[in-house]
Design a protein that fits this description.
Blueprint: E1 9-10, H1 19-50, H2 54-57, H3 66-94, H4 96-116, H5 120-131, H6 136-145, H7 152-201, E2 211-212, H8 222-252, H9 262-286, H10 292-306, H11 313-342, H12 347-375, H13 378-403
Parallel strand pairs: 1-2
Helix pairs in contact: 1-6, 1-7, 3-4, 3-5, 3-6, 3-12, 4-5, 4-6, 4-7, 6-12, 7-9, 7-11, 8-11, 8-12, 8-13, 9-11, 10-11, 10-13, 11-12
């Protein structure tokens, strides 16, 4: 039997750890979380800045058609989905840090190709190459590697908040930057973000101290992994559908111009985070993230189903807050639960599978949302998405009792 590795930190219950060690471990975990959150947020900011203005700025490129522009927007998500699991597999063998650097380098090279593109096929190639930097699952695996199970929901929440913050920043900055820099300039900005991410990853030690877990991937645990993967698929499909269908409804039905949408999104996001953090702290301490899943999806269902009725500003704000609360709880709780199910062996590959479904969900949600918007309108699309979330939440209530409370989770 191997002797214990002194560079690794055993995962003890928080109540059994000396206070000085708890503080030291917490500081280390927060430092890694802040670094990984910044890396992912910078990459996502580059993506989000382009999406709201792409269709308008690309129209003058030779070969532009609505179909080719849609392919240019969607191909990023497809290559992301296809390569999440291979990148996770590589990170289990090469280490997380080298694969993160490789993915960010591919994202930067893709940005250069897109910035220099003079035709739509070249632009599509650049976007596809950007998507080849599929590091979301690797980053989550590294966050899980260096974090005690009790702290993972909060750490995953920090990463999720970074992604949410990049989305909100893009809402305020995309149009001014597009007018100032043009499409090529925005792609050069994504290159700069990728290089900044590389600099941040280089601050991570080559072999960071990893938390030792007694839990290896249990026998028969593949079904819980698939349950969580399908859950994140639905979560991100609904999120993309929401931001395809809600903005036109805000303009047409509620008279809220695009330039004012941040007044709805930013306060409700911050309020949801303030509510979410103490909930996650309590859930993480008891290792009971699985109990959140059905209720969070039911919260999404209620918010989405009632949005078409939220004509008054306070009602609309409350519903969006409930939506963000459910979304953020799932975005933080599911990766934390998944990392505990898998144990440390093969974590990168399983996180890669999870991220594959995450990006596939975003891609499918955009396609389905656009089709429903054109055929039945925003209100029916949102009510339909709410019904699906309600059905999935009810199903999860049964599945979590069967597969997460009977040994699949330690």
């Amino acid at each position: 039997q191997r002797p214990p590795d002194p560079s690794r930190s055993p995962a003890l219950p928080l109540a059994q750890e000396p206070p000085s060690r708890v503080r030291s471990e917490s500081t280390r975990e927060l430092r890694y979380a802040a670094t990984l959150s910044a890396v992912i947020a910078l990459r996502m900011l580059g993506l989000f800045l382009i999406l709201p203005v792409f269709m308008l700025l690309a129209v003058d490129l030779p070969g532009f058609t609505p179909q080719s522009a849609g392919l240019a927007m969607g191909v990023y998500g497809l290559t992301q989905a296809l390569l999440q699991q291979p990148f996770g597999w590589l990170s289990d063998r090469w280490g997380r840090r080298p694969v993160l650097l490789l993915g960010l380098a591919l994202f930067a090279v893709g940005g250069v190709v897109a910035a220099l593109a003079e035709t739509m096929p070249a632009l599509i190639a650049g976007r596809a190459l950007q998507g080849c930097g599929a590091i979301a699952g690797v980053a989550m695996a590294l966050a899980a590697d260096v974090t005690r199970p009790q702290r993972r929901p909060l750490i995953m929440a920090m990463i999720g908040i970074g992604i949410g913050g990049s989305f909100l920043a893009s809402m305020a900055l995309s149009v001014p930057l597009a007018l100032l820099l043009g499409l090529a300039g925005l792609f050069w900005l994504t290159v700069a973000f990728a290089l900044a991410g590389i600099a941040l990853v280089l601050t991570v030690p080559r072999s960071p101290p990893r938390v030792v877990e007694d839990l290896a991937a249990p026998q028969g645990s593949s079904l819980p992994v698939w349950i969580l993967s399908l859950s994140v698929f639905l979560l991100h499909a609904v999120m993309t559908l929401l931001f395809v269908t809600l903005p036109p409804m805000l303009v047409d039905a509620f008279g809220l111009g695009l330039s004012a949408h941040w007044k709805l999104y930013v306060p409700t996001m911050f309020l949801s985070v303030l509510i979410m953090l103490p909930v996650l702290r309590r859930v993480g301490a008891s290792l009971s993230e699985h109990r959140l899943l059905p209720w969070a999806f039911i919260a999404l269902a209620g918010a989405l189903g009632l949005l078409p009725l939220g004509a008054e500003w306070p009602v609309l704000g409350a519903l969006i807050t409930i939506y963000f609360l459910g979304f953020n709880l799932l975005e933080a709780g599911m990766p934390a639960l998944l990392s505990r199910i898998t144990g440390s062996q093969g974590r990168g590959r399983r996180m890669g599978l999870y991220s594959t479904f995450q990006f596939l969900g975003a891609f499918c949600g955009g396609v389905v949302g656009g089709a429903l918007l054109g055929s039945v309108g925003s209100a029916a699309a949102l009510v339909g998405a709410g019904a699906v979330c309600l059905a999935w939440g009810a199903l999860l209530g049964l599945l979590t009792k069967r597969f997460f409370l009977t040994g699949a989770v330690g």
